[in-house]
Amino acid sequence: MSIQISEKTLQDLEFSTVLEQVATSCISELGKKEVLKISPIHNEEVLFFELQLVNEYLASFENENRLPNHGFDNITDFIKRLSIENSYLDTDAFLKIATVTETVNELKKFLKKFQEYYPSLFKLGDRIEFTTFISDTILKIITSYGEVADNASPTLKQIRRSINSVRGKIGESFSRALSKNIASGYLDDIKESIVDNQRVLAVLAMHRKKVTGSLLGTSKSGNIVYIAPQATLTYSRELQNLLYEEKQEVIKILRALSNEIRPLIPLLNEYLTFLTHLDAIGAKAKYATEINGLLPNITKEKKIYLRDAYHPVLWKKNADQGIHTIPQTIELNNKQQIIVISGPNAGGKSITLKTIGLLQVMLQSGLLIPVHERSETSLFGSILTDIGDNQSIENQLSTYSYRLKNMRNFLRKCDENTLFLIDEFGTGSDPELGGALAEIFLEEFYHKKSFGIITTHYANLKVLANELENVTNANMQFDERTLEPKYKLFIGQAGSSFTFEVAQKNGIPYSIINRAKKRVENEKIRLDKTISKLQKERNRLQKTSDTLEKQKSKGREHIENLQEKELKVREKLEGFQELYDNNQRMLGIGRKLNELLNKYFQTNNKKELSVNFFKWVAAEKTKFTKKNPPKKKTKTEKVQEKEIATKQKAAIKKVEAEVLQKVIKVREEKQIEAKKIAKARSEYIFKVGDRVRLIDGNSVGSIDKVEKKNVFINYGVFTTKASIEKIELVEKAKS
Fold first, then answer.
1. Whose CA is closest to 40, among 357, 330, 326?
2. Other CB atoms closer than 10 Å to residue 614's CB: what's the count?
3. Average pLDDT of 634-650?
4. What number of other Cβ atoms are within 10 A of residue 484's Cβ?
5. Helix (H, G, I), strand (E, B), or coil: what is residue 178?
6. Which of 40, 504, 592, 696 has minimal CB crowding within 10 Å?
7. Is 481 exposed, middle or buried (0-12, 13-18, 19+ CB in 10 A)?
8. Do residues 139 and 97 lie in contact, with contact meaning Cβ atoms separated by under 8 Å?
9. pLDDT at 392 (0 to 100)
10. What pLDDT, in 10s, does the model give residues 677-686?
C-alpha cells in the first residue's frame, strides 16, 4: 500500500510544531535539520524499521546497556574541501574526522555486542563498513594536541632536531651575554625582557654603546634600551629559516595525508549520515519519554483504537501551566466506520478531531505516540483534512467555494484506505441547502468504505448518522447545570448544541431568547430539547455509574486488605508451627542424648555408648531422608549442567586471555612511554632559570649557571654544582 499524505494535512494538524519540539532534543545541528525534514514515510517496510529503531532507543533508557555517546562534529565542510584535488586539511580538521570514525566504530562494536537487545539498530549500523584505517592513519601523523608528530617524516624529524639545537644555542649565547653584562654592570635591575617574542638585554641607556647587538626598543622613560646580543641574532636568523622549512614540510605531510584519505570520502559521508540519523532517532526517543509515547500494535486489520490518547502539543502546554489534560478514547472499525461528533462550541470537538489525525500522522512518520499500551491501529494510504482554521478575510469571502473544492478532492481520493477528518461539516452556506449537500457527501464517503470523523451542528447529519448502519453519533460531554464543557467524548448519542442555554449564560436577555425560539421551527426545538434531555439523563446515569464504580472499587480494596491481613496471620501461624516443631525436635534430641549419657555414666561402657549413638543417628537420618528425598537429576539436566560448566570455563579462559593481552599491551605502551621520556630528557638542553632536582633527591632548585656538562643549582640557602646527567627537569624557565 502506497502512503500519500499531503502538505495541507500536515499544516492542518500542526505537525511542524511537533517536529520543532522533537528537534530541541537533538545533540547536533545536522540532527535538528534532519528532524525538521521528517514527513510521513511512504514505504511500509521502511516505516516499521524506523519505528523499531525509535522503540529500541527508547528501551535503552530503561536498561543497563545504554547506547554510548554519539555526539559528533559537523565535518561536511571538511569533506567538501577534501574532495578538491591537491587540497589539504589542517590538523584540527583531521582530528575531528578521526573522532567521527572512532565514534562510529565504538557504536558498531557496542551494537554488535548487544545485538539481541537492539536488532534494528545493529542492522542500521551493520550497513556501513567497520574500519580503523582512517583514524589509525590520521593519529599516526597527528598527535592528540593537534600537532604533526616528529616521526611523520625523517625530514621533519631532522628539521625539528635542528630547531631544538639552535634554540639551545640561542639560550646558551644569551646566557653568556647576560652573565658578561651583569658582571660589567651594564644592565638594569630587571636584567632581561621580551621584545617581539625574543629575549633581549635590559641595558642602561648610558651603556648602550658598550653592548654589541641590535637595538630593538626602549622603555617609556628612555632609561633602558633593549638589545638583542649579536651572537643571539645570528642563531635567530638560522632559527627563522628552520621554522620556514618546518612549515613547508608540515604542509607536504598534510597534503600526502589528504591524498591518502581522499578515496574514503564516500565512507565518511556514510558515517555522517549514520550519526545524523541516530541523532534524529535519539531525539524521537527523548520526545517519547517527555510525552509518555509508545509504539501501539499496528495491525493489518483496518481499524483505529486509541485508548487514553493525548494531543502532544496540548499536553506539553498544559503540563507547563500545571493544567490536567483529559485523554480521549476513540475507535473506528468496520462496524463503526464514521463518527459524527456534535455538541456546543468550545467543548473539545476540534481538539479531539486533531488528536486522532495528528497521532496517526506522527505514527506514520516514525514517531511514537502518547496512548495506552493496549491501543492499536492500522496504516492509511491517505489522510484527508478539512479543518479550516484559517480566519483571513480573503478565505472567509470564499469559504464555501474553498470547502467545496476540498470536498471535490475528498470525493476523488477517498477509498477504503482513507482516513478523513472534517471540522464543522457543511458550514459556509445556507444551513438547509448546505446541510442537504453535506448529507450526500457523507453518504458517498460511507459507500466508499472510508474511515472518518466529522464535527457538526447540523441536526440532519445527526439524524443521518443514526440511520446509517456503520455511522455513529458522538458528543462532547457538557455539564447542563454549570454549562461548562467536560472535554470527554461519549460515543453513541448526538449532542445538543445548548444554543439558547449558552446564550442565556453569556448574558443575553431571556425575552430575546424567547423571541428567537418562536422563530425556529417547533420540530427543531423539540429535537434539540429531546437531545438535551437525553444528554442530561445520560450524565445523571454516568454519575450514578461512577458512584457505583467508586463503591465497587472501595469494596474491592477492603476485600484485598482483609485478604492481605489473613495472609499475614497465616504466615505467622506457619512460623509459630515451624518454631514449635523445631523446639519439639530439639527436646527429643536432648532427651535421647541425656538417656545415652545416663546409661554411660552407670555402665562406663564406651563401646555400648558408641554403638547406641551411631544407631540412633542412622535412624534419624533414615527419617530425614524419607521426609526430604533427594531430587534425582535427569540425564538431560546432567548434560545441561556439564555444558554450562564447559561454557563457563571457556568464558573464563577467554577473559583471562583478553586481560593478558591488555596487560602485555599496557606494559609495551609504558615501556615506549618510558623510552620517549628518557629520550626527551637526554635531548633537552637545560637553561638558566629552569627548575630542576637531582634524580635521587626531592629538593627542587633553579639553575643559576650552565657550564658545558655541569650546572650550578641554587636552592635558596646554598648553591651546588651537579652533572647534567644527574638532574631532571621539574619546570621550564619562564620566557
1. 357
2. 10
3. 81
4. 12
5. helix
6. 696
7. exposed
8. no
9. 41
10. 777 777 777 8
Amino acid, res. 141: I
Q: How confident is the model at residue 641 (pLDDT cuts 50, 70, 90)?
A: confident
Answer whether 0.70 is exceeded by the pTM: no
Set of cell numbers at residue 520: 425556529
Cβ–Cβ < 8 Å for 187, 204? yes
Distance CA 285, CA 50 (A): 11
Q: Which of 14, 16, 6, 39 is nearest to 311 (CA)?
A: 14
Are the C-beta atoms of residues 236 and 228 closer than 8 Å to each other? yes
Helix axes 459-467, 431-447, angle to 10 degrees: 30
Helix (H) or strand (E) holding 421: strand 418-422
Q: What is the mean pLDDT of the chain?
A: 84
Q: Above 90 in pLDDT, residue 257? A: yes
- Rounding to the nearest 10 degrees, give the CA dihedral for residues 394, 398, 402, 403: 120
**pLDDT, tens digit, for every residue of 333-370?**
999 999 988 877 666 788 888 999 999 999 999 999 99
Q: Is residue 527 within 8 Å of 459, Cβ to Cβ?
A: yes
Query: Is-same-fold flag (7-150+260-291; 297-520)?
Result: no
DSSP string, 480-538: TTTTEEEEEEEETS-----HHHHHHHTT--HHHHHHHHHHS-HHHHHHHHHHHHHHHHH
Check: CB of residue 397 under 8 Å from CB of residue 417: no
pLDDT the model gives residue 1: 63
Answer whether residue 528 shows pLDDT above 80: no
Class of domain 297-520: alpha beta
**Alpha-carbon dihedral 264, 267, 269, 274, rounded to 10 degrees:** -160
* One-letter amino acid for residue 735 of the chain: S
Mean pLDDT over residues 419-443, rounded? 75
The larger pLDDT score, comparing residue 366 to residue 199, is at 366
| CA 76 – CA 92 distance, rounded (Å) | 14
7-150+260-291 maps to which CATH number?
Answer: 1.10.1420.10
- Strand partners for 202: 226
- The CATH number given to 684-731 is 2.30.30.30
The phi, psi pair for 18, rounded to 5°, reads -65, -45
Residue 659 exposure: Cα atoms within 13 Å on the Cβ side: 6
How many residues are present in the chain?
735
How far is C-alpha 493 from the geometric centre of its chain's CA atoms? 45
Instruction: Please report, as a single letter, which amino acid is at residue 228.
Output: A
Per-residue 3-state assignment (H helix, E strand, C coil) for 480-496: CCCCEEEEEEEECCCCC
Residue with cell 497521532: 359
Q: Where are the domains of the chain?
A: 7-150+260-291, 153-239, 297-520, 551-627, 684-731
Q: Where are the alpha helices (DSSP H) in 292-340?
A: 312-321
Quick one: which of 274, 259, 353, 268 has its CA closest to 314?
353
Distance, CA of 310 to CA of 355 (rounded, Å) = 7
